[in-house]
Each structure stands twice: as structure tokens, then as C-alpha cells.
């Protein structure tokens, strides 16, 4: 016969194998069983919709009698409210098992992307696509199967391909961020990518155009426009012969498309690509001759104003004349800002025969020309939108005459 006693530390110590079970005298259904091997397990017996259920509370090696009692009270209360705690536990276990087998691409598409969209819809798809592209070899992996060794091996391969430390760090940090959210949401218990330390490197690459390269760039832009105009004339002649409606002429406009005004504006304002492509015409103040970078579009989240010099002003003024109904300065289609300039930029670089010069380097070109013209570094910092002077100091070496002038003051 089972023993009827209050389940306590003392009564559990006194429980013998031949006793088989103790039924608690205070909480209905709360009991402890002992196996033939001496293993003790706490349970809560209850009836739900006519079925008998023995709900496991825990092993005596894991929880104390007092903890088992508290848990039995809690679960009995939930049953009294109409909850089948055993079925709920079963569903949680099934969900946990399903989550453990969640593969990276499914997680990125179904969980992480919707989350990123709520944070910043402009960058959400780019982040997810970046992870998928850089870590394609992980796309058949379950979340908890991704190991530091695999990432270290990938980093080594990327270094051999000539990738910069900052580019590699950005990719790894993007993946870390995704996995950290999975941990936060309970999809996995943990991830070990914190063991993959950031590559420390001197990241002060400053690539700007020399005088010859800048001339070739400007010539390539004009040559591209000339070719586009010639191609349009040829196409219209073709269509006229066949009686087709002609395309709009490119001979009567300043710019054949967005490429030339975009490059001229980048060269004369130092704006980041994202800041340029996010510009709306409402951000351009022609009368006052400046443009406004809004905080939401700036990397530092701090807004700033940039004066327009003659070349920037004229480029914007003429481009506006051609796009009077547009909302954004550079649109991919009506009412939607442009998102990518890689293909036309690559074509211009090829025509100009300029190597290892990215679109972002136009920002360095702008800053470098300012410093070499004698503009103080703090003003350069403000124009670039740097949070502090540390980033701007990379251009200090371009102004040796300033250092010489400073030393001469005490000579």
C-alpha cells in the first residue's frame, strides 16, 4: 500500500523501494514514486476531460521536495482553470524539437527578415541577402550546427581572396546579430560565434583620385552620355523608318540619366551612397543653396546640412528641370528611390581605366580635396558627418603644410 504522508525532505529520505510511492496528504494528486533502482520522481495526478493524467514534475536529483510542492500547487491551479498542463508541456516539447531543427535560410526568411523590416525596412532585405550571399555554405545548416571553426575557415579563405578586414568583420557581425536574435527568441539555447573575435587591422584606407584620374573620370562620364545619345538617335531613326513611335530625344537634355548628376553630387558633397539615394527633392534648398541630410538617413543618425558649390548646384538644378514630378532626387521607378549603382559605376570605371576605386571612395576624394585646399579638419568632420574627429584624422597626412606652419610659429 502507498504511504500517505506530507512530502518533505525527511519523508523522502525515509522512502524505501518496497514502499513504491508516497501520496501527499495536503495537495490532491501530488505524489513521489521510487523505482526498483532507487530513483525518485515527483508527479501530479489529475483528471482532464475524463482522461487520467500523470504529470511529471521532476526528478528528486534535480528539485527539492519543497520545489516539487510549489510546482504541484502551480500546476494544480492551472488544471483547475481548465488547462491541460500535460498537453501544453507536450506541445512545448514538440515546438522545441522543431526549433532545434530550424535551418538558417528558413529562419532568415520567416523570423529574422520580418523583424528587420519593423526596425528599418530600407536595409532589411539587404542584410538578409548579404548573409545568404556571404555564407551560402551554411544554408543547409540548422541554427545550432553553425560552429566557430566553419567561420574561421571562411575568414581565412576571404583573406586569401584579398577581402579587407572591415568587409570580413561586417559579414561576420551580420551573422552574429542574426544568431543572437535567435537565442533571444528562444529558438536556440546559445551560439558560439562570440569565440570568433573581430579582426584587428589598420583600417585607414584613403583612396582618392589624382588629377589625371579625375580628368579621366569626367571624360568617361561625358563619353558615356555621348554614346547614349548616339544610340538613342540610331534607335529613333530605325523606328521612324518602320513607322513606330519614337523614344524621347536625349539631345535636348543636360543628362541622359541619373549617373552623371549622382557622381557630380557625390564628388562635391561627400555624402555616403545611402544618404545620396535617400535624398528627396524636399531636402534640396535651391534658394539657400544647401541640401539637408535627415537624421533617419544618416549613418550617425544625426542630421546635417551641406552647402552646394556651383557644380553641385548646377547638377541638381538641371536634373530637377528634367524630373519635375519626381519625389526622390534619384529614382529607380516613379516614387521609389534608387537602391543600387554598382553596374553603371563599374562601366564608368572601366571606361576611365581607373582601378581599385569604389563609389564610396568619392567621399574620400571630397574630403581629401578639402584638406589639401586648407580646410580645417573639424569642418571636414562636420561636412562628412563623423561623430568624432578620430575618423577624420585619416586625412591629416594630406595637409603637411599645416604642420609646417604650426612648427614655424615657435621657430
TrEMBL record:
GO terms for biological process: DNA integration; DNA recombination. One of its GO terms (molecular function) is DNA binding. Residues 103-183 form the Core-binding (CB) domain. Pfam families: Arm-DNA-bind_3, Phage_integrase. Keywords: DNA integration, DNA recombination, DNA-binding. It comes from the Bacteria. Residues 77-97 are annotated as: Disordered. PROSITE patterns: CB, TYR_RECOMBINASE. Residues 237-408 form the Tyr recombinase domain. Residues 83-97 have a biased composition (Basic and acidic residues). The keyword DNA-binding applies. Belongs to the 'phage' integrase family. This is Tyrosine recombinase XerD. The lineage of its organism: Bacteria, Pseudomonadati, Pseudomonadota, Gammaproteobacteria, Vibrionales.
Amino acid at each position: 500500500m502507498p504511504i500517505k504522508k506530507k512530502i518533505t525532505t525527511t519523508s523522502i529520505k525515509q522512502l524505501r523501494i518496497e514502499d513504491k510511492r508516497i501520496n501527499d496528504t495536503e495537495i490532491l494528486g501530488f505524489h513521489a514514486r521510487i523505482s526498483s533502482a532507487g530513483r525518485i520522481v515527483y508527479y501530479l495526478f489529475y483528471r482532464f476531460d475524463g482522461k487520467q493524467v500523470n504529470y511529471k514534475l521532476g526528478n528528486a536529483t534535480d528539485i527539492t521536495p519543497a520545489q516539487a510542492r510549489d510546482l504541484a500547487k502551480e500546476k494544480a491551479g492551472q488544471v483547475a482553470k481548465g488547462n491541460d498542463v500535460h498537453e501544453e508541456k507536450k506541445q512545448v516539447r514538440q515546438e522545441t524539437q522543431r526549433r532545434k531543427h530550424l535551418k538558417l535560410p528558413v529562419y532568415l526568411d520567416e523570423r529574422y527578415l520580418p523583424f528587420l523590416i519593423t526596425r528599418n525596412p530600407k536595409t532589411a532585405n539587404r542584410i538578409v541577402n548579404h548573409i545568404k550571399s556571404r555564407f551560402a555554405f551554411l544554408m543547409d545548416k540548422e541554427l545550432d550546427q553553425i560552429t566557430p571553426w566553419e567561420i574561421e575557415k571562411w575568414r581565412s579563405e576571404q583573406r586569401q581572396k584579398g577581402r579587407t578586414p572591415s568587409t570580413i568583420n561586417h559579414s561576420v557581425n551580420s551573422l552574429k546579430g542574426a544568431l543572437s536574435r535567435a537565442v533571444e527568441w528562444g529558438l536556440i539555447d546559445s551560439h558560439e560565434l562570440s569565440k570568433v573575435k573581430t579582426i584587428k587591422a589598420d583600417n585607414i584606407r584613403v583612396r582618392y583620385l589624382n588629377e589625371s584620374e579625375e580628368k579621366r573620370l569626367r571624360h568617361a562620364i561625358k563619353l558615356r552620355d555621348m554614346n547614349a545619345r548616339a544610340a538613342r538617335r540610331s534607335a529613333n531613326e530605325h523606328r521612324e523608318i518602320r513607322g513606330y513611335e519614337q523614344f524621347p530625344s536625349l539631345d535636348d537634355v543636360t543628362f541622359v540619366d541619373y549617373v552623371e548628376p549622382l557622381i557630380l553630387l557625390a564628388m562635391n558633397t561627400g555624402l555616403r551612397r545611402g544618404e545620396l539615394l535617400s535624398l528627396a527633392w524636399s531636402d534640396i534648398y535651391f534658394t539657400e543653396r544647401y541640401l539637408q541630410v535627415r537624421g533617419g538617413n544618416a549613418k550617425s543618425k544625426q542630421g546635417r546640412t551641406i552647402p552646394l558649390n556651383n557644380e553641385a548646384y548646377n547638377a541638381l538644378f538641371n536634373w530637377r528641370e528634367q524630373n519635375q514630378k519626381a519625389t526622390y532626387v534619384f529614382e529607380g521607378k516613379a516614387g521609389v528611390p534608387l537602391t543600387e549603382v554598382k553596374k553603371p559605376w563599374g562601366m564608368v570605371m572601366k571606361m576611365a581605366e581607373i582601378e581599385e576605386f569604389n563609389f564610396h571612395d568619392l567621399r574620400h576624394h571630397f574630403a581629401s580635396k578639402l584638406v589639401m585646399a586648407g580646410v580645417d579638419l573639424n569642418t571636414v568632420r562636420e561636412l562628412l558627418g563623423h561623430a568624432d574627429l578620430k575618423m577624420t584624422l585619416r586625412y591629416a597626412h594630406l595637409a603637411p603644410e599645416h604642420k609646417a606652419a604650426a612648427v614655424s610659429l615657435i621657430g
